[in-house]
Amino acid sequence: MKISQLWSYPVKSMVGEQVPHVELSSLGIVGDRHWAIRDLERGGIRGGKKIGALMQCAAQRRGDDVVITLPNGATVSSQDADVDAVLTQALGHTVSLEALPADNNLDHFRRGPGDSDDPLQELRAIFGRTEDEPLPNFAAFPPEVVEFESPPGAHYDCWPLMVMTTSAMDALRAALPSSVIDERRFRPSMMVETQEAGHVEFSWKGKRAQMGSAVVEFLDPCPRCVMVTQAVNADIGPDRDILRHIVRDLDQNVGMYARVITRGSVSVGDTVQFL
Length: 275
Fold this sequence. Notes:
M1 Pyruvate Kinase, Domain 3; three-stranded antiparallel beta sheet
């Protein structure tokens, strides 16, 4: 097995960019999701589960700043004085672009109020589940995400890395021939080229692997949410069938959560060797 793609996501829930190599720290890919969007009306950091139009924006790092391409093709920089106003207009929500706090202020990460007073309805909306579909097994998530939008110190949803395989992508395309199966729907940190068929990564739980000079540990399969159904651009439109297949046929999961055991560098083409 080898690394076929590496992705960096400068802004939480926005499309990222493929990169030739990454540095891994205990918090995952260095610089990943350094920025996030705060909802100034409802409160709290918000991702694509709540503001779907975030997935139609793309972010690229430029030194210490980020340049965001909006759905209409215009761009705005984190340096621009009107960046919050531009994003507010583009997203249809009153928002601000915020970086990770240098002092790790816990209030920055605290979860904002839900959109519904009914907890079950709120969860079904977040995970895109119909009334007759099960909710995920929440044991896959770290306990702190009950109180915080993301684990304090980071803007990723649950765990530092999302690892997917080329065989899983092939299996999705075979199962959903009428759907557009694109990596940008699933937001992998790493894509591993595999020779086996199907969702082979599900068997990796608890294993450790050497990637470049880093070592990662595979945790649990990733329960998928409403984000995989949302539009990314004109070619990758909204599609509910993808999530229906994942819930019905894949026990709700695509890809594997992972964490970093040994810091190091990983490049496209590096082998993935179980330890």
